[in-house]
Amino acid sequence: MLPHSIGRPARYRLAMHLIGVASAARVFASTPSKVPFYVAAGLLAAWAVLAAAIGLARPHFPGSSGRMRLVMVTSALLVAATVVTAVTTASTPRASTVGSSGAAPPSSTLAPSSTLALAADPTGKLAYDTRAAVVKGGRVAIRFTNRSPLPHNVTVAAGGRIVAATSTIQSGVATLAAQLPPGDYAFYCSVDAHRQAGMQGTLTVR
User: Fold this and answer.
1) Residue 128 pLDDT more than 90?
2) What confidence category does residue 85 fall into, taking pLDDT thresholds of 50, 70 and 90?
3) Element holding 201 (H helix, E strand)
4) pTM to 2 decimals?
5) Is 182 within 8 Å of 203 (Cβ atoms)?
6) Please, which of 135, 156, 162, 170 could form a disulfide with 114 given CB 3.0 to 4.6 Å?
């Protein structure tokens, strides 16, 4: 046990102080800085480890109230030196930039998928609302709206090979997800002779 000159409250304060010193060393060591700070933080951490090791090896450490005050003063000085060097040598973090403008690109440019939105002529004419479309390669969502009195669909083909096709609908909406690598495609309605009548277009996947 420690001498009676160091009561239980004093021993508790000393133990808590050493724990605080070690915690401070970890906190300050995580702060970006230069050489002076690293030196101060290293001394602080080494002192905390040394004091804790001596305390474990020598039950009577520090042995008197005067020595306890010396330990606490030394610890306080090292903590103060670490704080001062951290403040004086810390550099201001640089703001991260994306591209030449320094601004992050809009979320739309980061989206991994695109949408091919097509609609049949609502008057019954065998045609879509567009004859050319461009989407990004990858997972493409196909949304087809048919408000005409005739049944239609959207079929996507590459070089004569069908790669995707919505269901045939009348007065409704059909959706489909397809994996489309970059290339040139054709989209058309495969119902009867609708394609031959002009219900078709070109799709460019980039």
Assistant:
1) yes
2) low
3) strand 200-205
4) 0.46
5) no
6) 135
Residues 6+ apart with CB under 8 A from 190: 153, 155, 165
Tell me, what's the pLDDT at 134? 95
- Read off the amino acid at residue 140: V
Helix, strand or coil, per DSSP, at residue 88: helix
d(CA 27, CA 178): 51
Q: What's the maximum distance between 2 C-alpha atoms anywhere in the chain?
A: 106
* Amino acid letter, 125: K
Which two three-digit tokens encode residue 122?
């609502």
**Domain 111-205's class?**
mainly beta
Residue 46's pLDDT is 77
Q: Are residues 177 and 141 in contact, defined by beta-carbon separation less than 8 angstroms? A: yes
Cis peptide bond prior to 181, omega within 30° of 0:
no
pLDDT band of residue 92 (cuts 50, 70, 90) is: very low
3-class SS string, 34-50: CHHHHHHHHHHHHHHHH
3-state secondary structure 146-161: ECCCCCECCEEEECCE
